């Protein structure tokens, strides 16, 4: 809940559900990443909707209690506590509803490799660059996207980054 509030306040780019799932499993709770991602999406929707409608803690809990009968009592208590402590801190921008939702860039890693051989070719000696982008989607889920480029493709990629950097310096 706290990570979701931080994400909604733009203090962190997203929720790394794989890492969080591992921490929860280490604590002895049996849950998989997919189920945790669904829970995170639901809580994100709940908190953002409550913030947009400027709900008090009691209004949120009353609404939550009338609409969801399967939610355990301790889960409602956690939601109540987090919303009471940090809910008012969620900044709801007036034009947030008008903005297109896109992912947020978190990190980029790259490595240079050389393919030496394969099943069909004995001597490749083919250089390539592998890039891994870490991206937080609009709901806050952090994912890695990887791709490989040839050296000419990488040079073009690098040239485009240099162009972006020079444009950003003029702003």
UniProtKB/TrEMBL annotation:
InterPro entries: COMM, COMMD4/6/7/8. It comes from Zosterops hypoxanthus. GO terms for molecular function: NF-kappaB binding. Pfam families: COMM_domain (PF07258). Scaffold protein in the commander complex that is essential for endosomal recycling of transmembrane cargos; the commander complex is composed of the CCC subcomplex and the retriever subcomplex. May modulate activity of cullin-RING E3 ubiquitin ligase (CRL) complexes. Down-regulates activation of NF-kappa-B. Inhibits TNF-induced NFKB1 activation. Residues 104-171 form the COMM domain. Belongs to the COMM domain-containing protein 6 family. The gene is Commd6. This is COMM domain-containing protein 6. It comes from the Eukaryota.
